[in-house]
Q: What sequence folds into this?
């Protein structure tokens, strides 16, 4: 990982993204590009004033990164809507990683929540790290997730090349369903039969996960299978809490257009409610 891009709106929460990116830049000896988008859908005098102020702030930040942290940093101010500006910056700079904060204020308010977050993550060709927690050193436990799809396999292999888990414990989580327990008449199934059925489904899920892992070059990972007793986003976050994970890795696309791991469902919901960092990895596109 040699090139990082940070989208900032100069808010306190964006500072978390900058601090995490700084730690990563130092760890990997990577260069950084700081980007701020000025909404150009306002009077010209306001656009010009915000552009000039943003340019000055970015230069000050870059100087601090260079002099204090030893990080080579470039800056760029873009006049556009937030979504278009960041997507264009990613297309131009082709960073290895885009780092953003979880929330917002003013001109970038829609980049980090709701449908614009989905559009941003869906549109860029690089992994997106959403920094929710205050950075406190390198990641210690990375929880990777999979729905056993080819897209998930590609995302996990891509994650491996970033090196973010080189010095961390790593686990691989698969959430499995037990369809019979969701039927309207499932309450009539004896408790012992429900228990045995769930145990069978868990064994099948464990076998499928082991088979999936053996078909990749991911190395040895601690394997976790978990029944989807609650909606999948909550099960993922619950597992992360129990495992004391400080980074969750998710693919933005899963089995199909309506798959549960598709951005807009599980991944988007986790991005919205997580208190720890989330890395969203898009499908690799053909050149």
A:
């Amino acid at each position: 990982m040699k090139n990082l891009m940070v989208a900032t709106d100069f808010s306190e929460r964006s500072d978390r993204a900058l601090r995490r990116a700084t730690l990563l830049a130092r760890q990997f000896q990577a260069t950084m590009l700081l980007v701020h988008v000025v909404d150009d859908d306002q009077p010209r005098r306001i656009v010009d004033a915000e552009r000039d102020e943003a340019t000055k702030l970015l230069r000050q930040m870059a100087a601090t990164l260079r002099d204090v942290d030893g990080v080579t940093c470039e800056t760029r101010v873009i006049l556009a809507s937030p979504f278009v500006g960041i997507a264009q910056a990613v297309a131009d700079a082709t960073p290895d990683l885009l780092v953003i904060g979880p929330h917002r204020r003013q001109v970038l308010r829609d980049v980090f929540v709701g449908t614009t977050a989905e559009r941003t993550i869906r549109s860029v060709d690089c992994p997106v790290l959403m920094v929710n927690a205050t950075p406190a050193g390198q990641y210690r436990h990375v929880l990777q997730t999979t729905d056993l799809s080819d897209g998930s396999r590609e995302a996990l292999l891509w994650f491996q090349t970033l090196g973010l888990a080189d010095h961390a414990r790593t686990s691989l989580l698969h959430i499995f369903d037990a369809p019979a327990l969701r039927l309207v008449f499932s309450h009539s199934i004896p408790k012992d039969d429900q228990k045995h059925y769930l145990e069978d489904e868990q064994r099948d899920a464990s076998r499928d996960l082991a088979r999936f892992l053996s078909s990749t070059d991911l190395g040895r990972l601690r394997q976790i299978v978990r029944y989807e007793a609650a909606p999948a986003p909550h099960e993922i976050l619950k597992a992360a809490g129990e495992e004391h994970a400080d980074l969750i890795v998710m693919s933005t696309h899963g089995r199909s257009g309506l798959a549960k791991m598709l951005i807009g469902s599980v991944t988007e919901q986790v991005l919205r409610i997580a208190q720890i960092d989330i890395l969203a990895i898009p499908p690799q596109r053909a050149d």
Q: What stands out?
A: Confidence is low (pLDDT under 50) at residues 105-115, 254-264. The longest strand covers residues 31-38. Residues 152 and 251 are 6 Å apart (CA to CA). The helical segments are 12-28, 44-67, 82-93, 114-123, 150-162, 191-214, 232-243, 266-273.
